[in-house]
Design goal:
UDP-galactose 4-epimerase, domain 1, 39% helix, 7-stranded parallel β-sheet, two-stranded parallel ribbon, 16% strand, 328 residues, alpha/beta, Rossmann fold
């Protein structure tokens, strides 16, 4: 089997590429390295089943030739994080909407066998129901969520109109080794692990009792592969851990002092996926417990030695636009 992974040098993408190669796939990666890192796949350097292409997914003509003969396309390339999407919505629309259009068109022209879209649980905003089902109301709170949802709508529409076999996976709070270490203020693990290495307090938002459906990255990679190999098409699946864990529990497992900072508007007090649909349709189950996942993160903590060290003051400055635009 031949697979193509956009964003394959990124956090989730690199784990997916690794698993696909172990499963016997020949994998082509398309990445422009804006947020991906060469080091994420350095251990596969020279592997004959890996082909790296350094192009922008928005350039349809540049990427199209690489889709020829591909069986499964995994579209993970995207810009992430809330704050920069508020500050630069044009970049997010270009990458997450126009880029998805380009990848869909290249896949359609190549007549691929399955297209896997990476959607975001942020589309639910602050939901009424926990655990949250795929059929619950869409409530888009900021440009990142909007652009990921528009990409999902494009993918499902291409499936309906052009009969492209599509599945969309809505991911909940993915964590694990190789998560992003640089750039804007964002993912909690990058922030906390750099603080742990520096012996600084963890900057916990609000009272820390908010819970998140922290889902380990290898479980997510296995969900993608299960979806690709299935006969299912035209469906949307939540991908979560089966639980929801407080930020206070996270810092308890990491160990160390805590400093509380103001709660941010537009953030849910809980994220918790109802995963009954994917379990039934694909026979997929998460395997890595939250406690074991945190242990693995600590064992790989040196990965975050060059990550920025965030303080309450720098976080306040970085999130000023968040409070400016989302406070109501």
């Amino acid at each position: 089997m031949k697979a193509l992974v956009t964003g394959g040098f990124g956090f989730i993408g690199s784990h997916l590429v690794e698993k696909l190669i172990k499963e016997g796939y020949h994998v082509t990666v398309i990445d422009n390295l804006i947020s991906g890192r060469i080091d994420n796949l350095k251990h596969l350097e020279g592997n004959q089943n890996l082909n790296a292409v350094f192009e922008n997914i928005c350039d349809l003509e540049a990427i199209s030739e690489h889709f020829n003969g591909i069986d499964h396309v995994f579209h993970l390339a995207a810009l992430a994080d809330i704050v920069p999407s508020i500050q630069s919505p044009d970049k997010y629309f270009a990458s997450n909407v126009n880029g998805t259009f380009s990848v869909l068109e290249a896949a359609r022209r190549a007549n691929i066998k399955k297209f896997l879209y990476t959607a975001s649980s942020s589309c639910y905003g602050i939901p009424d129901n926990y655990p949250t089902k795929e059929t619950d109301e869409i409530r888009l709170k900021y440009p990142y969520a909007l652009t990921k949802r528009l990409g999902e709508e494009l993918a499902i529409h291409w499936g309906e109109v052009y009969k492209l076999p599509v599945i969309s996976l809505r991911l909940f709070n993915v964590y694990g080794p190789r998560s992003r270490t640089c750039g804007t203020y964002g993912a909690v693990f990058g922030v906390f692990l750099a603080q742990k290495l520096a012996g600084q307090p963890y900057t916990v938002v609000g009272d820390g009792r908010q819970t998140r459906d922290f889902t380990y990255v290898t479980d997510v990679a296995e969900a993608f592969i299960a979806a690709a190999r299935s006969d299912v098409t035209g469906e949307i699946f939540n991908v979560g851990s089966g639980g929801s864990y407080s930020v206070n529990r996270l810092v308890e497992l990491l160990g160390g002092p805590v400093e509380y900072i103001p709660k941010r508007p537009g953030e849910p007090d809980c994220t918790f996926a109802d995963t009954s649909t994917i379990k039934k349709a694909l026979n997929w189950l998460p395997k890595v417990s939250f406690e074991h996942g945190i242990k693995l993160m600590i064992e790989n903590i040196d990965y975050w030695k060059d990550a920025p060290l965030w303080t309450p003051e720098t976080i306040k400055e970085a999130t000023a636009d968040w409070f400016r635009y989302l406070s109501r």
